[in-house]
Amino acid sequence: MAKSVNEVRKDVIGRKVVITAVRGSRPHDLPVCPRAQKITPPEKCFFCPGNENLTPPEIERIEKGGKWEIRCFPNKFPAFSAESRKAYGRHEIIVETPEHQKSLSELSEENLYDYLSMIKRRMEAAAADPKLAYTIAFKNEGKEAGASLEHSHSQVVSMDFVPDYVKKLAKKAGKVASAKKKPMKNVFAQNAHFFAMCPKAPRYHFETWIAPKEDANSLVALSDEQLRALASILKSVLTAFDAATGFGPYNIIFHSAPHAGGAFPFHLEVASRASTWAGFELGTEVVMVSELPEVSAKVLGGKLAEIKDKNAIS
């Protein structure tokens, strides 16, 4: 059993977190809420089939059975654009499914493979622009995680500079590569090409990293076989995540190398946003987390086992 003691830990780039396991049992005024219902009628949803005219002109799509499965188009309200002199770049939306009520975890592995393929293609297209230096793909699931629209979607943002945080990660590539040669702790899911783990110094409850077993610096560097393996483990992680949090809000961040390439610890970060950073975090840049990652890994692994057993019975 994990020790209920407080402990200061550092993550891979030196950021400090305080694991305050004893605070996990403190009283809470707010009850745990059930799954948030999507209340926007499909006919009024910008991303639902039949409303394609409500979005900017489509860049590309993936079709199945003569109907679109995934669409990509420019963000109507971009942070970066080709027309901006001081914020040059691209800002695109990827709608992952035509089904308004579905979350990413409820999509098939094949759908997730197509979704990852679309992100990969959009990253490749951005890298072909010599003015652009870095592209980040991310998903905000739920209002608390930053989503402004209910229908499941992701964003791909490209810019003409490399963020400092990305530079710090690149400097740690060798350290991360060495660490992966040792037995990994808190791994709760894996396949031939990827593993999913709860990092030792998480900033969020149930924070999970999905990382490749082989060297890869970007989503763009993955082979088709690796991309399918990533779709499979992403499905497992999100299914466990939603089971553990009651379909709570989360972010997915695709951490990839800058366009110039080089060594980089490519990984996907899945971060629950059920808890809120408050005065301590904003005043110190040190995060308090009230659950040990060792416990999070056991919970997520347990949820996966329960789901597999249920599917085997049914």
Largest sheet geometry: 10 strands, antiparallel
Multimerization status? single chain
How many beta-strand segments? Answer: 13
Overall average residue pLDDT: 90
Please give the domain count: 1
Low-confidence stretches: 23-32
Q: What is the helical fraction, as a range of percent?
A: 25-40%
Tell me the span between the first and last alpha carbons.
32 Å
At the fold tier of CATH, the topology name is HIT family, subunit A
Which architecture would the CATH scheme give at its second level?
2-Layer Sandwich
Q: What topology, given as strand order, has the largest sheet?
A: 3-4-5-7-6-11-12-10-9-8
Q: Tell me the number of helical segments per DSSP (H or I, 4 or more residues long).
A: 6
Counting helices, strands and paired strands, the structural category is alpha+beta
The helix/strand order is: EEEEEHEEHHEEEHEEHEH
Our estimate of the beta-strand percent is 15-25%
Question: Over all CA atoms, what is the radius of gyration?
Answer: 20 Å
Classified in CATH, the superfamily is HIT-like
